[in-house]
């Protein structure tokens, strides 16, 4: 399932594509086919069209513990037929800061939010026997790459200076460690596109903080201050991009486009749409879209119909605002970087891309 050291780093992931497709590292707290897993499928399909060059997927604890996320990522790439081209790299299991003892104190003293704690909601797996298999089983032959996620990020950026975009769709622990240990790569990173933060809206995990940035606020603070081109896709916009039953049915129920991906999509995302809750007869029921907006924005920045340039920071102090993001329009504190904040999306065009990529034939044929 998650055996170490089985992959060949050089042959699978570090060779430049013959075309000019953007080079990407997906840094993810991976899951089978929720938002992270959906992005993995979309990335593989875009690579099959020669529109992107996914160098690899680096996994970090967040939505799930690292070991579970790695198992899901391995199966995901094997399932779609991308395992020989897109390798999985094992990253950080724990945040730089924000241990569970501190989280417990904060939640007790400052209650609120949706209660979602990601990995902290479940016991940490200590062996493969503790892992939960994806609905169609664990990966049967795909193994993790021998290189660590941090080393892979560093080596990829050095091999392709000013060409690598990092899609940061989980906690930022891997990226912070890579740039702290090897600061020389900072000016070589082309850009970072985040799904994270809540700038002018309430948080989700807590009343003030969005989950990805709440999980490891120290890592976020360090990376946000780096002189790199950065784009933030926060809850401000994800709250407004919602999948309704019409979009859901386009993915799950098109009789001419049934694959293992659409079947798993229905199984894992059917709550509220397919008779699994009591909401299924409510035409107003919707679910938010998160991480997949990052890859859509990378491929077509004009999908962002409203953006703002601000200096962004995150609170790292114990208390009600731990993990809270702030976007300064002027007079920022010393050390902050000005970056693009996406505030609105062309939802119709996004969902056309989303549906298309999730319903394409599987397995993919990668170059």
From TrEMBL:
Inosine/uridine-preferring nucleoside hydrolase domain mapped to chain residues: 24-352
Keywords: Glycosidase, Hydrolase
Signal peptide from the UniProt entry: none
InterPro entries, sorted: Inosine/uridine_hydrolase_dom (IPR001910), IUNH (IPR023186), Ribo_hydro-like (IPR036452)
Ligase in keyword set: no
Keyword Hydrolase belongs to the record: yes
Molecular function terms from GO: hydrolase activity
PANTHER family: INOSINE-URIDINE PREFERRING NUCLEOSIDE HYDROLASE, URIDINE NUCLEOSIDASE
Protein name: Nucleoside hydrolase
């Amino acid at each position: 399932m998650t055996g170490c050291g089985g992959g060949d780093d050089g042959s699978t992931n570090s060779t430049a594509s013959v075309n000019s497709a953007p080079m990407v590292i997906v840094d993810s707290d991976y899951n089978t086919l929720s938002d992270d897993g959906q992005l993995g499928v979309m990335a593989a399909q875009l690579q099959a069209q020669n529109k992107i060059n996914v160098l690899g997927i680096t996994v970090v604890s967040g939505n799930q513990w690292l070991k579970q996320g790695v198992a899901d990522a391995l199966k995901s790439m094997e399932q779609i037929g991308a395992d020989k081209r897109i390798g999985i790299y094992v990253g950080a299991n724990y945040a730089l800061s924000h241990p569970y003892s501190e989280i417990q104190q904060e939640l007790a003293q400052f209650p609120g939010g949706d209660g979602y704690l990601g990995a902290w909601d479940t016991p940490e797996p200590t062996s493969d026997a503790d892992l939960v298999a994806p609905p169609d089983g664990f990966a049967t032959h795909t193994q993790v790459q021998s290189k660590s996620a941090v080393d892979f990020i560093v080596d990829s950026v050095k091999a392709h200076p000013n060409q690598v975009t990092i899609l940061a769709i989980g906690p930022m622990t891997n990226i912070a460690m890579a740039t702290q240990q090897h600061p020389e790569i900072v000016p070589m990173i082309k850009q970072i596109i985040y799904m994270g933060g809540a700038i002018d809206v309430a948080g989700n995990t807590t009343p003030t903080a969005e989950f990805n940035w709440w999980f490891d606020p120290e890592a976020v603070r360090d990376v946000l201050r780096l002189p790199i081109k950065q784009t933030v896709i926060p809850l401000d916009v994800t709250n407004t991009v919602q999948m309704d039953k019409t979009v859901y049915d386009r993915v799950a129920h098109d009789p001419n486009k049934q694959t293992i991906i659409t079947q798993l999509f229905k199984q894992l995302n059917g709550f509220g749409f397919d008779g699994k809750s009591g909401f299924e007869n409510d035409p107003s029921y919707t679910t938010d879209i998160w991480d997949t907006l990052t890859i859509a924005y990378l491929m077509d920045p004009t999908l962002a119909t409203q953006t703002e340039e601000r200096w962004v920071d995150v609170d790292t102090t114990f208390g009600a605002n731990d993990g809270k993001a702030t976007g300064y329009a002027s007079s920022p504190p010393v050390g902050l970087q000005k970056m693009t904040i996406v505030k609105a999306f062309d939802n119709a065009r996004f969902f056309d891309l989303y549906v298309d990529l999730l319903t394409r034939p599987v397995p993919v044929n990668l170059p």
